[in-house]
Amino acid sequence: MSIYLDHNATTAPDREVVDAVAWAMAQAWGNPSTLYRQGREARAVLDTARARVAGLIGAADPFEIVFTSGGTESDHLALTGSCGAGRGDHVVTSMAEHKAILRTCAQLEQSGFRVTYLPVDGLGRVDPDAVRKAITPKTALVSMMLANNEVGTINPLPEIAAICRERRVLLHSDAVQAPGRTAVDVAALGVDLLSISGHKLHGPRGVGALWTRRGTVLQSVLAGGSQERGVRPGTENVPGAHGLGVAAELARKRLAETPARVRSLRDRLWELLRAAVPEARAHGDLERGLCNVLNVSFPGHDAEELVLLLDKEGIEVGTGSACTTGQTTPSHVLLAMGVSPQEARCSIRFSLGQCNSQSEIDEVAAVVSRLVGGRSTCHS
Amino acid sequence: MSIYLDHNATTAPDREVVDAVAWAMAQAWGNPSTLYRQGREARAVLDTARARVAGLIGAADPFEIVFTSGGTESDHLALTGSCGAGRGDHVVTSMAEHKAILRTCAQLEQSGFRVTYLPVDGLGRVDPDAVRKAITPKTALVSMMLANNEVGTINPLPEIAAICRERRVLLHSDAVQAPGRTAVDVAALGVDLLSISGHKLHGPRGVGALWTRRGTVLQSVLAGGSQERGVRPGTENVPGAHGLGVAAELARKRLAETPARVRSLRDRLWELLRAAVPEARAHGDLERGLCNVLNVSFPGHDAEELVLLLDKEGIEVGTGSACTTGQTTPSHVLLAMGVSPQEARCSIRFSLGQCNSQSEIDEVAAVVSRLVGGRSTCHS
To answer: What is the DSSP letter of A278?
Structure first.
């Protein structure tokens, strides 16, 4: 058994989720758009899933949830769908967003939109005042992630939302890293659109959701049937939605206990590492950021090499965004935070999850310290 | 237990498929873009699935398979992705295509493309000569479905392909209704792009594939990571792909026996119905079309009412395309075939599957005959 510390890349689905998907595949396989019993039963399962996902994020109405194939599609639908609805030709986002946002923005630029990429501070946060200054009368949408996938930094969304409301500009947030790790309440955040992904919260792969505040007009990206109120055509993935619904309920219930425990493990890991490797440097906002992320550079140690060495020791960690693996360019997030390219190339991301134990953390600290040539971290 | 005769709307996943998805969720949950063991194992499962799907359709190279979230996305990616690659500003399709094609064409028209919608004959077939005449030097793509979802008619794709090759125009085919029901061989068909869907072939919901002949340049629709050779970003749905791979193998193996058996059941159903209800009229190409489809109008009997009456008797059938349920407009496919709107509103679609038995067929014939006021069909 390996020690898995790459929960921001993906998470293992809970046993209950696997069982839920298998159950729905066997029992709720009807097409929800059909009129007969088999179809109506599938529709009922889909509606329950919608309510559970709505419950996770404090959505008032389950029908504000649009099921998609995952976080990338949710982000794409939010941006392209909002911009297609004729609100303006300008988008505001940040330099530290996920590639799903940045590359959709690049597509929008090719279609004639103008995009403002706001800088972030040394912790990875966007300044609300910069959002205020960037908004113009032609701004259709602001898109700001809730929690950064590479460093875990949480953006000041309520402040940004207040500005967007005042200026009557839609606010979207890519929140795929947040559920189960921090409270996500669309009312408290003040956003209009919010993306989540099943496989980041111990749910199924290939399913996600876009929450859209009631009354928000979106143009669909795909074209076909009138499923999901016409916003997302294609026969509904009922088993995936059901699995996401079950995962959403589990994440909501665990919120009272899991994040605090994971945070203390994450803090222990950093304490052990910095004691053993004084030159190690953590990136991001350990205090107010996500409970589970520790992004550290070990100067002089190439990140990809270190990941492979750790793999040989049965420890699985990432080099930032899994979506850009194989690229030799340093993380755009760390660069935006002012980290030098050399240091960015030496950074690995530990992202913890609900199943990690203290003994795992101690072993990881010991192995990493040995590999990067630090002192022993054996405290026990 | 009800009798299910709406296999063109969706199919129940095979037990092996349910088990395969559950296995992959529990065992191959890693992110295939990561470098360590868990990721490499998931990548291996994905590659095996790709080879199995390639095997189903006679694709030379597994990497010609792009996994998507289903048939609607495959169709959309084929059309939008081809048209975005700068080949021309004209598309040729037919009036009898699925809404996923027709509405994507409508999107393309809004972006400045010109679309020619070819008529079909009384059986629902496109005339290859009409394709020849429609192609211009500016034609980027021809899209012609393999088998029609509402009536089962099979288009003369090899003839159409020969014309497209001669004129150097890409040919896409929406083949989602075909696998497991008729042989699908991309080389014999001569197409360049072909869409399939998991849930139409007893595979998982929420997963499909687009086969793209090697060397065919497609622009991605979604934007984000570089998964699926950059054509379809988003963390790969490994469990869905694995389930589709298992379903593809099962469909391929059953091809020798199942279609012939299903065809004889379908023919028996039509024989019983026409004997009992002389005014009933079948639409489509029973002889050369898909083995499993029987689209019949019962003059004077509203299709939706009949579907609901049959549901009360435990018989589940469709009214044409499940994707347009709730619409009161008559089927665009039947209208294109020259059926009158009145008659089209009276047509229901029986679509059989591998699990249907002769006794089920006899019961359906008896119940339908009773409901539409015909003579008894009790032959036994």
So the answer is: T
CA distance A366 to chain B (A): 19
The phi and psi torsions of A318 (rounded to 5 degrees) equal -110, 175
Q: In whole angstroms, give the CA distance from residue A262 to residue A319.
A: 20
A246 neighbourhood in chain B, CB within 8 Å? none
Backbone angles phi, psi at B195, to 5 degrees: -100, 135
Question: Which structure tokens are listed for B315?
Answer: 């018989």
DSSP state of A289: S
H or E stretch including A218? none
B377 has a pLDDT exceeding 70: no
User: Can you spell out the DSSP letters for B117-153?
Assistant: EE---TTSPPPHHHHHHH--TTEEEEE--SB-TTT-P
Tell me how far apart the alpha carbons of residues B347 and B368 are, in angstroms, rounded to a whole number.
12
pLDDT at A321: 55
- Percentage of chain A with pLDDT > 70? 96
- ipTM value for the complex: 0.95
Smallest CA–CA distance from A4 into chain B, residue: B38
Question: Residue A19 has which token pair?
Answer: 């069982």
Strand, helix or coil for residue B197: strand
Which pair of structure tokens corresponds to residue B198?
């998991």
- Decide: A41 and A32 in contact? Cβ < 8 Å: no
> Can you name the residues that pair with A154 across neighbouring β-strands?
A147
Region label for B112, one of left (φ > 0), alpha (ψ between -120 and 50) or beta (otherwise): left
What span, in angstroms and rounded, lies between the C-alpha atoms of B43 and B30? 8
For residue A147, which of A289, A248, A340 has the smallest C-alpha distance? A289
B85: Cβ contacts below 8 Å, ≥ 6 apart:
B140, B217, B218, B219
Q: Which amino acid is at A280?
A: A
Alpha carbon distance A93, A135 (integer Å) = 10
- Smallest Cβ distance to B26: which of A18, A35, A76? A18
CB-based contacts of A332, cutoff 8 Å, min separation 6: A95, A96, A102
Which DSSP string corresponds to A119-148?
Answer: ---TTSPPPHHHHHHH--TTEEEEE--SB-
State the residue for tokens 């008729």: B182
Residue of B nearest to A97 (CA): B224
Nearest to B100 by CA among B55, B134, B138, B68: B68
CA distance B45 to B28: 7
Q: Considering only residues 53 to 112 of chain A, which have any Cβ-Cβ distance to chain B shorter than 8 Å?
A: 68-73, 75-76, 98-100, 103-104, 106-107
CA B153, CA B260: separation in Å to the nearest integer? 16
Paired tokens of B83:
């048209």
Q: Which phi-psi region, left, alpha or beta, contains residue A244 (left: φ > 0; alpha: ψ -120 to 50)?
A: alpha
Which residues are paired to A65 by β-bridges? A211
What's the Cα-to-Cα distance from A198 to each of A19, B45, B71, rounded to whole Å?
A: 15, 20, 21
Q: What confidence tens digit (pLDDT) does each residue in B82-119 have?
A: 998 888 999 999 999 999 999 999 999 999 999 999 99
Would you call A108 exposed, middle or buried from its count of C-beta atoms within 10 A (0-12, 13-18, 19+)?
Answer: buried
B157-190, pLDDT tens digit by residue? 999 999 999 999 999 999 999 999 999 999 999 9
Q: Which of residues 313-342 of A touch B (CB under 8 A)?
A: 316-319, 321-326
Residue B284: closest CA among B269, B271, B294: B294
A200 vs A290: CA distance, rounded Å: 13
- Residue A68's region, left for phi above 0, alpha for psi from -120 to 50, else beta, is beta
This prediction has a pTM of 0.95
Asked if B197 and B323 touch (Cβ cutoff 8 Å), the reply is no
The residue count for chain A: 380
Residue B321 with chain A: CB contacts under 8 Å: 225
Q: Which pair of structure tokens corresponds to residue B265?
A: 């059941």
The structure tokens listed for A351 are 């992202």
